[in-house]
Amino acid sequence: MAIVSTTSRGQVTLRKEIFQHVGIKPGEKLEIELLPNGEFRGRAVRKKGSISDLAGCLKGKTNGARLTIGEMDEAIGEAVVEEFLRGVQR
Asked: Considering the entire predicted model, what is its pTM?
């Protein structure tokens, strides 16, 4: 458990190990959920993708071949996993 102090302006500075634990870097955001009995819970805000984020995700993966729906699904799945792993490694 980490104990932090508040400033006279009501601000809190979280220690580096807290940010590392939740997997965020400077400039990224934390979501704070207010709970009963004066408690709260924080978690890293994760970017939610949109359908337009898929544009170009198959580029260079087909060598000009036409793909079946199943092959497209598989390629999209692989691209999603690659993107997830890149986000985890940050």
From this structure: 0.44
